[in-house]
Amino acid sequence: MNNQVSLKWALPYAIVGFARDAIYMFVLSFYYLYLTTVLDLSSIYIIPIFLIIKLVDVIKEPFIGMLIDLCADVFKYNKFRMTVLVGGILNAAVLLQMFDMPYMHQSVQVIYAIFMYLMWALTFSLIDIPSWSLTSIFGSDHRTREIICAIGRASAVAGFVLIMLLAYFFIYQDQGVPDHIYSSLNENLFRSVSWYVAGITFISAILFYVFFDMEEPKRKVVRAKEAASTFFGNDQLMIIFFLTLLQQTCLCVFVGYQNFFAIAIHHVPSDDEIFFYIQIPWLVVSLLTYCAFHHLVKYTSRRQIFIFSTLLILLSFLILYAMHTTARLTMGSLSFLICLLALGFCLSQASTTVMTADCIDYGEFKFGCRSECMNFSVQIVSAKFGSLAAMIFATQGSAYASLFTSSGLDKNLLFNSVNICMVVVCVCTIGMMVIYAHYYKLHGSFFENILNAINHFGKNRNTTKSNLNSVRYALDENSVIYNLKAQSLDEIIHVLTDRLSMVRAINSKHDFLKAIKEKMEQNPAGIAHGIAIPHARGSFVNRSAVAVASLSRPINCGALDNKPCDLFFLIAVPDDGKSHISILANLSLILSEPGFADKLRRAGSSEEITKRLILCEKKLFK
């Protein structure tokens, strides 16, 4: 395990994630069932009201996240430990009351049920938001982040497994999985399971508070206006919102109808077969995928993993739909396709969780302030919006209620809805790939430089935001060359070094060239996308400076994508331990702006290149 992801901190993190999703799945799956079967409340009143409440529940999340961040800054306490502790205790107490409703008039019971659900949703946010936000504080190292995100997702699956087991052994006790689920339910069974789940929530909150003693990243006090600017001005965070919204809509719609594919098989399987051929493979593959996520990314890339996962979801569902419509679907083929879909969805969810954590670092780099809980609420908001959309497309409420039974699904009623499900999955997956490919930019070598800068300045908080914005101060038009005609990499570096010497940025060309050569022996000058950024630091540098050249003919510089480079940025910085990270990170952010590198290539003069670089940096750090 990575040295930053020690068992001391990873275990409490996993425990609270396990409890969080256990209580969430219990309420999501069985509260509606409890109200309609045990209390005999009418679905006509319950469903519309709860849809409205669900919408309010979604909207409140960013405000709760901002409140958690602001209160922690004002009152100087560890927001993760304290908020999870308070939320866990209150949520456990509310849960017990939800499934132990006093006898009263039906109209009063409806009001009481609504009130208890609102209280549960509010207290659950105090667990949900900070526990997911923890992902971003384990360090900005990308390997560490991939491991911790996989742990968070795997513990969530384990929480879901717990609810399945409790439902199997308590709600359906001594009957196996019943053919008629609704007739076997009673108030005492729900109450018993709620005590178990509430106990797990309470104990996990206590354990987390006692054992999770990791210090929060130091930050300046964030005001409400700054937090809002960081949230809404973070373009990549908004991209993640739409990606996760499509992802969760796709997931929830499929989960709502996976049992229907089973009962549409010519030989209708029993409830036990549905349980063991659908639910168990899904859960096993999910856990294995999250355990392997870090290794898969290590030997490929985050970008490849996300695109692969989205294509896998789309292709697996197309095959499933084709086999279903041609009546060729068997229990074995269904189970295999369920495993492929589980693999795709889990890789996709782990990827978007990592991306969300990256967006927090990106926001800190861009705006100079950090707001973990408010920013991470985007993942929760998009997931809840996705489930709302799924309720509309696939009657998700009844689908969750019939998790263990085939008898709750009507073939005739749901046949046309499978076509809707097909359209939703196709539109969502294609939309995800288009948005990711065209708008998401926090990956590759560019973003690694930003993460390095955040990690460095996290240890040197005396550095102000203005010190980060250093490219325009290091740039001199006399060191910018348009349409340079060069035959080799050495020639380019020598020409740009002469320009740095001419503007008195370096005091020894010999020492600077030697340092550049040593640096390039460790890492190639080429980065990717036709861009090269050779750099060196030392006492031979008088001040931070950047020399720029656009080439008339691209030169091979050993870039990871094997593309020849036609944009060169030669960086010289003094050996002060921070300037090189600042300039590298800032330049990476500028060059990762969609289409900006091509604008530099199309520039018609050195002056135009200089102006475009300065204007882009000012725009990013206004």
UniProtKB/TrEMBL annotation:
InterPro entries: MFS_trans_sf, PTrfase/Anion_transptr, PTS_EIIA_type-2_dom, PTS_SugarTrans_NitroReg. This is Na+/melibiose symporter. It comes from Succinivibrio dextrinosolvens. Coiled coil: none annotated. SUPFAM superfamilies: MFS general substrate transporter (SSF103473), Phoshotransferase/anion transport protein (SSF55804). Signal peptide: none annotated. CDD domains: PTS_IIA_fru (cd00211). Residues 473-616 form the PTS EIIA type-2 domain. Keywords: Membrane, Transmembrane, Transmembrane helix. The keyword Transmembrane applies. The chain crosses the membrane at residues 12-35, 41-59, 80-99, 111-129, 150-173, 193-212, 239-268, 274-293, 305-323, 329-347, 376-394, 414-437. It holds the Pfam family PTS_EIIA_2.
